[in-house]
Amino acid sequence: MDLLKQEAEHGALDVPHLSNYVLNLMTLLCAPVRDEAVQKLESITDPVQLLRGIFYVLGLMKMDMVNYTIQSLRPYLQEHSVQYERAKFQELLDKQPDLLDFTTQWLTKAARDLTTPSPSSSPNWEANKSELPSPTMVLYQGYLNLLLWDPDDEEFPETLLMDRIRLQEMESQLQQLTILSSVMLVARSFSGNALFRSPEFVAKLKCIIKALMEECSSGPEDAMLNVSEQVSQEIHQGLRDMGLSALSCESTASLIGQLQNISKKDNCVRIIIDKRIRLFLKCCLVCGMQESLLDFPGGLIFIEGELAELGWKFVSLMHHNQQVFSPYYAEILKNIIPSA
Predict the structure, then answer these.
(1) Is the distance from CB of 338 to CB of 125 less than 8 angstroms?
(2) C-alpha to C-alpha distance for 249 and 229, rounded to whole angstroms
(3) For residue 338, what pLDDT band results from cuts at 50, 70 and 90?
(4) How confident is the model at residue 9 (pLDDT cuts 50, 70, 90)?
(5) Where does the source fall among the domains of life (predicted)?
(6) d(CA 222, CA 69)
(7) Of the four listed, 8, 140, 221, 322, which is most buried by Cβ atoms within 10 Å?
(8) Which residue has better confidence, 53 or 71?
(9) What is the pTM of this model?
């Protein structure tokens, strides 16, 4: 370095030779994805632009190395994280023996949901031994119930308190996707398949619906008023652009009415879509994301990308929780399910 500094100070630095040396070294060290970027640098003749390009690509290579290091260490970091979180929770449990009371109630309700139709009755294991749910299925049902949790209910499972905000965000996303998918299905039923075969139209309509839902903070009823009017206009314009027959006044009024009705929780379309989304998330937990994506539920095609993203986040969070607290869950479930 001192020699290079002296050469530069005396104007004797051979920049092309030094650049070739650096580029050859970068070719040996860079990831395959950076080969093309390094090759492009070899065609630059302006020394200033060449040095700028070299420093830029070196920055990318540095990030590649960081990402590779993180990926290499990820299994060890995850294992350490699981052990650390479990140890810290055990310290709290030693000080507060009743720390798992809400968790026990949560798992008991999950077991009840899988075995008894009446929410007020207790699981009758002796009478239904042939229908005993597995501990894993009870736990997964409990995870799914978290996406229906009343935000005012403070009896949240202690083992999931750190994840409560993220779960609330996922619940909000689930509700938005339910409404989005319901709106798209109702709109398609009125306008026909031809219009909704256009990826551009579908993408534009989804963006409009999302924007209107995000802008309106006064409630789903007001949001759907705006959504219904705008969707109706977009369908009219889309049909006109494709040279298709416009909707009649009666059909338009019916479309707007059905779209506005989606704001109600007892709307039949919304209920069906909600059930299918939750079934998909359950399949993600039980079968894994890859298999679940191969058998994507019907009626959810318009939100496939968004739902897959939500599924990945939900499964990742719940599986980590399962790894950390599985010993505690197993002990609780032994007392809930005799054969557990």
Answers:
(1) yes
(2) 13
(3) low
(4) low
(5) Eukaryota
(6) 49
(7) 140
(8) 53
(9) 0.72
CA-closest candidate to residue 309, choices 125, 149, 101, 169: 169
User: What is the rounded average pLDDT of the residues 135-159?
Assistant: 92
Distance CA 213, CA 222 (A): 9
59-67: long-range contacts at Cβ-Cβ below 8 A with a sequence spacing of 24 or more? Answer: 60/34, 61/26, 61/29, 61/30, 61/31, 61/34, 64/30, 64/31, 64/33, 64/34
Q: Is residue 83 assigned to a domain?
A: no
What's the CA gap between 2 and 83, in Å, rounded?
Answer: 49
Q: How far is CA 50 from CA 6, 58, 293, in A?
A: 21, 12, 46
136-149 burial string, b = 16+ CB within 10 Å, else e? bbbbbbbbbbbbeb
CA-based radius of gyration for the chain: 29
Task: State the chain's maximal CA–CA distance in angstroms.
Answer: 95
Q: What is the DSSP letter of 96?
A: -
Higher-confidence residue of 141 and 1: namely 141
Domain extent at residue 16: 2-77
Question: Which residue type does 292 have?
Answer: S
What whole-number distance in Å separates Cα of residue 63 and Cα of residue 161? 34
**Residue 167 shares a structural domain with residue 234:** yes
Q: Which residue has 């077991």 as its token pair?
A: 111
Phi/psi at 281 (nearest 5 deg)?
Answer: -65, -35
Please tell me whether residues 73 and 102 are part of one structural domain: no
Query: In whole angstroms, what is the distance from residue 278 CA to residue 284 CA?
Result: 10
Same domain for 23 and 160?
no
State whether 310 and 237 are in the same domain: yes
